[in-house]
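Sorry, explain these tokens?

___
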Amino acid sequence: MKPPTPPRARRRLALGIGALGLAAIASLPPVAAAERAAGGDLRPFSARYAFTWHGLNAGTATFTLSNLGPGDWLYASSTEPRGLFSLVPAATAHVTSRMSVGPDGVRPIHFEGIEGNNRVPGAVLDFDWNALRVRGHMKEDMVDMALHAGVQDDLSVMISLMHSLGLGSLPSNISLFDKSGIRDYAYLLERSETLATTIGAVPTEVYRSQRKGSPRHNLYWCAPEYGYVPLRAEQHRGGDLEWRMELISIERAPGP
């Protein structure tokens, strides 16, 4: 099967690779008490995944969560496409989301995405929670849109889910920013499953997210012992598997 080349397929590929949210970090420092208070059970981590698209080996994706100070976090993703996927500019993506984590939950502050190797930002967004506006641009389109509580960007959405689960609650809905409008997604726990991974058999909770009326849904195998970091993620359209991310390796900062 040839890799997708139409614009919509390229965008889905880029969003798929960046839907979870830099090179793996060699060592991770313990989390300070102030950081734990601000972020709940969040800890810095780096996870690397194998990415397949319609059954084809599309490359790898690495996601790194870093703590910049009390309540100040950075989530970054970087992809390394392989084979024919290297010819698709959107398959090489570097995305970062800086966010605050505190009593109001996870709030994205600054989002930046780069496609290809030209290092020119394809998306730059600033979230102003005082004015309840998001401003910036996504490629050639300027953005100036109203916000409401709970809105996330493409990377902070996963940290929001992990943070809620770490606090013992499942958000019934999470809103995701898109230049076409803010979209609401429902989340539910489908089942518990012990997943065979490269780091052994790990108990996970499988969560499903879906936008009302959409034929697509995502599944996330979140591991409680790893702070609900997904060890596998999939997107399905009807009965067809569109893409899958499977854990290769993970490092996570030690707890208290």
Remarks:
- The chain has a mean pLDDT of 82.
- The chain has one domain: 7-252.
- The two ends are 48 Å apart (CA to CA).
- Helices lie at 7-18, 33-39, 156-166.
